Amino acid sequence: MTDPTDLTAPRPDRRPGGRTARVRARVLDAVRAELTESGHEGLTMEGVATRAGVHRTTVYRRWRDVGGLLADVIDAAGETDWRPPDTGSLRGDLTALNQEIQESLVVRPSFAVALMAASFHSEQAARAQTRLWADRYAQCEVLVERAVARGELPARDADARSLLIAATAPLYHQLVLLRADPDPRLPERAAAAAVLAAAAGAFSGRREEST
């Protein structure tokens, strides 16, 4: 199963095949490698072209600038056939999702940090990242829908996105912000806390008007 946040691995291209697809794959692999090794500050069009073995004119013509490269790396992550976990329970689904996230952040944490930092320096990359996360959250809303159907959550409007953010945020806080060692218990603990809060109505879509 492919982690929704894992942008590090080569991606199968859904666009037309042939030389164009091969060049794109090589260039995006080079971008990932450059980000991992040097961060977004060290990412250059020339460096990517050299690593990819592609003439820099080709890179400039297709991607125009570093922002275009970053945006395409992020867009490529959205082209996978990833599906949310289906373990039979909301707690199990969220735990499995968190385990995937933790694994991806542990494998190449410098890449994740570099890409997040890059989005603050490139409006094009920031827009691509917003699109990717919106798509992933939309895909994962089925976890909440199944939980309601099973009777695990109250049969009322649930704010699925808020629940998903609450369940997964501790992983990013621990591994990306604090850069702490991975805790094998954290994926389940974070999932359990979110499920308890959801069962208590913390993520109900209804909002009480303040008096």
Automatic annotation (TrEMBL):
- Where are the stretches annotated Disordered? 1-20
Per UniProt, what is one Pfam family of this protein?
TetR_N
SUPFAM superfamilies on file: Homeodomain-like, Tetracyclin repressor-like, C-terminal domain
Q: Which residues form the HTH tetR-type domain?
A: 21-81
Residue ranges flagged as DNA-binding region: 44-63
Q: Which UniProt keywords apply?
A: DNA-binding, Transcription, Transcription regulation
Full protein name: TetR/AcrR family transcriptional regulator C-terminal ligand-binding domain-containing protein
